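One chain given next:
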Amino acid sequence: VVTTHVLSRAPTGGVLCVAWVDNEAESTPSRGENGGRRLRHANVVRDFAAVNLQTNLEGTVSLRRQGVKAGTIIGYVQDAPAGRVLGAHAVSPTSP
């Protein structure tokens, strides 16, 4: 799905970035100023991959994530020399 929307006009030499993002997460640090407190987080990146684009835009990008949680898979293409984002698309994962 990401390739249909993001890569249709991607330049050769660009970079495809794909991230698995959990909508929400919680943590309880044991030390530091937040030690013992329950913290809530939003849009936490759990896995990330970057692929240099060549003239052939076919391929697979794999992300690892144990279990499907409420979240989003985000893909975006950057112009490699300038770092400018050229296009982006997001999809929600579904249970296997």
Observations:
- The radius of gyration is 16 Å.
- The mean pLDDT is 81.
- The chain has one helix and four strands.
